[in-house]
Design goal:
With 121 residues, the protein is α/β, with parallel strands linked by helices. It has one domain (8-119): 2,3-Dihydroxybiphenyl 1,2-Dioxygenase, domain 1 (Roll). It has two helices and eight strands; from the N terminus they run βαββββαβββ. The strands form two sheets. It has a four-stranded mixed beta sheet with strand order 1-4-3-2, with helices on one face. Strands 5-8-7-6 form a four-stranded mixed beta sheet, with no helix packed on it. A hairpin with an 8-residue loop joins strand 2 and strand 3 (41-46). It is globular, with a radius of gyration of 15 Å.
Length: 121
């Protein structure tokens, strides 16, 4: 038995349209076709092979912090991301340096899920 890759991350969201606006307009993710499920949701591309699946109808609280539940996206230039977040008044956790030298910033979506943007060491 073999695992090949992480295929997708699924997040249960309260308001699909509000979440779509965040992932499309703030994080600049590319929307993609979604099968005709009988529940609300949306899909976004994460890099070349992975996907983000939003599933509507969340009513429970989200528990997410930078050092707990989150997912990470490798980014090309954190200086540009930080300037961009400042220009659109998007709250984010300022840059940290991991012990291996990688840089990280965190941003929370409308439901409170944290997303890490990082560059390698």
């Amino acid at each position: 038995m073999t695992h090949y890759e992480l295929n997708h991350v699924a997040l249960h969201v309260a308001d699909v349209e509000k979440s779509c606006a965040f992932y499309r307009d703030v994080l600049k993710l590319e929307p993609m076709e979604r099968p005709a499920f009988d529940f609300p949701g949306a899909w976004f591309r994460l890099g070349e092979f992975q996907e983000l699946h939003l599933i509507g109808g969340r009513e429970d609280a989200v528990i997410s912090r930078p050092r707990s539940n989150h997912f990470a996206l490798r980014a090309d230039n954190l200086d540009e991301w930080e300037e961009y977040f400042k220009s659109i008044d998007q709250d984010y956790v300022p840059r940290r340096t991991r012990p291996d030298g990688a840089f990280q910033i965190y941003v929370a979506d409308p439901d409170g899920y944290h997303i890490e943007l990082f560059t390698g060491p």
